[in-house]
Amino acid sequence: MTGGGESVDSLLPVVYQELRRLAASYLRGEKPGQTLQPTALVNEAYLRLLKDRPDRWQNRAHFCAIAAHSMRQILIERARARHALKRGGVRARVTLDDALVAGGERSIDLVALDEALERLEQLDPEQARLVELRFFGGLTIEETATAMNISPATVKRHWTVARAWLARELGAP
Amino acid sequence: MTPERWKQVIALFHAALERVPGARDPFLLEATADDTELRREVESLLRAHTSTDGFLETPAWGVAPELMFEDHEVTLTGRTLGPYKVLEEIGRGGMGIVYAAEDTRLGRQVALKALPPDYTRDPVRRERLRREARAAASLMHPSIATVFALEELEDGLYIVSELVRGRTLRAELHDGPLAPGPLRTTLLEIADALTAAHAQGIVHRDLKPENVIRCTDGRVKILDFGLARPVEDTFRSTTTRLTQAGTAAGTPGYMAPEQLAGGTVDPRSDVFAFGVLATELATGEHPFGSDSAAMIGRMAQMLESEAVVRSGPWSAPDVQQIARRCLRAAPDDRFASGTELAAALRSMTGSGAAASADPSLWWWRFHQVAITLSLAALPAIAWALRPWIGPPNGSRLFFAALVLATVSITARLNLVFTSRVHPRNLRSQRALVFPWVTAVDGGLALLMIGAAFALDGRDGVAGLVITLSTVILLSLAFIEPATTRAAGLAP
């Protein structure tokens, strides 16, 4: 992670906090429709950062990248810890699985995804970054394009192939 | 696979995708020629591609929302605890996570705060919390979120209170300082809430923008009255790791020096926190700076001296005086409670006849008038001394005294006038005029003392002159600075 500093440390928690609210609504099985979308949060936090320390942040992409990367670290760290817990024989909370089913999302092995993403990074750093922004940063195609300074069409092309590659690596059905 | 090879794969993958499914195999066969490995790679990607519908489309926190929470946090949402159906998380602070819940017995929505285990494990703390909850529950005020109960449900301890929806003042501060009008109204509402609480002997202990919510009707409500406990490890750096951000403790920036030092906490500690809050709302800046290291440094400075408060431009200079008085290091120097604070705010929010109810300003004014009368006496005395000193020095003394006294009296009476009619300008006017007034008064007093020594054989009169002049000098040196500081006019 580059150029942490106090500003990002004071703002990322705001984003994180709001994402938790979103996550809570996912857990309740709702589609977080009216609530603020994650990208709006990231943008708002970024604008606030800019106001604070215009010199500190090269650009929006920088902040989005840090936010996405932080989210990845946090989630993977926790996923690993819980995997370890399961293997250790401690029963995972039933409520978690129930909530997941209620959420209606296909569950993804995040730890395996993280490892696959690391392999993709060796192969194609740009695609790995794109996946990080999209999946861990919650950015749309257009936002990803802006953040990476490439055209939306290019993002789509990268996204299609990276997704296929990751799906194959994860042995998705 | 090498990156170069990967580029080849990608190109073929996209080229194949552009063709109708039936045409893909022949195309690949031709394009890869005898490189079967390459063909197999592209083919497997194409196969995987057909099953990627929706794959990775939902962001990570949607796919695995439970990972956004610690183990002990996630379970509450959607659960039913006793009569309470937990609906959603609405916030979190040093004291725990707050949920919106439905009280099924009464069919109303409430706020349910789950206290972290550290707060409740110790039976002594638990008992104290129970006592405090009982006291807090007796607080009824439009600007205080009412505490309904302290509940023990399934091993956990929960504070049940009025559900307040709105934006915290912290969120409002992100848009900059408040305009003078809303600022005064907001501060007055908070001060009135403090008044009500302090009257019942209840201290908030952790008043800060995060704990004040503006409801949809524009009024504010203070949360956690009497129950807030700034977390012990408040000195933890603000650069908490992101993973801990959800549980970050309250900042020490709102705690009075005596509170930070672990001393007794009383209404005056709330008055201090109010000063910090007022400064932030009025200027958009924290009076001790935003990062904790600088802040602690300033707090330490503050214990030694008076003038430390750093803040940006004030949207309402009259509030500044009140905030300054709240931020005194010694509790005795602050407003004694919400009552005094509210009174001071009211007199300022009122018309131009501001601050007249402020007792400290009254003393300052009294001093100005008293010293003016003493000064007025000096030319009169000089007139009487004239025949004894004899020409031309007697006349010179009289005229000098008359001019100096007139200058000083005019300046001082003008300040008193300003304090009545334009209280906002008082501070700056006083700062402008005071050095000159000091020089004039000092010069006049010394002149008169000198003249007294020239009065041979008239010890009674000389004694009177010397006494009066000395009083003026001493009051310049000690009384004036004291009354000025007390009135919050010192720079």
User: What overall form of chain B do the CA principal axes indicate?
Assistant: elongated
Structural class of chain A: mainly alpha
Cα distance, first to last residue of chain A? Answer: 34 Å
Radius of gyration of chain B, Cα only, in angstroms?
35 Å
Biggest β-sheet: strands ordered side by side in the sheet of chain B: 1-2-3-4-6-5
Biggest beta sheet attributes of chain A: none
Which CATH class of the largest domain in chain B applies here?
Mainly Alpha
Strand % of chain A is under 5%
Proportion of strand residues of chain B: 5-15%
* Domain tally of chain B: 4
Low-confidence stretches of chain A: 1-6, 87-106
- Output the helix-strand order of chain B: HHHHHEEEEHHEEEHHEEHHHHHHHHH
CATH topology of the largest domain in chain B: Transferase(Phosphotransferase), domain 1
From the helix content, strand content and strand pairing of chain B, which structural class follows? alpha+beta
Overall outline of chain A: globular
- Write down the oligomeric state: heterodimer
CATH architecture of the largest domain in chain B: Orthogonal Bundle
Give a count of the beta strands of chain A, DSSP E runs of length 2 or more: 0
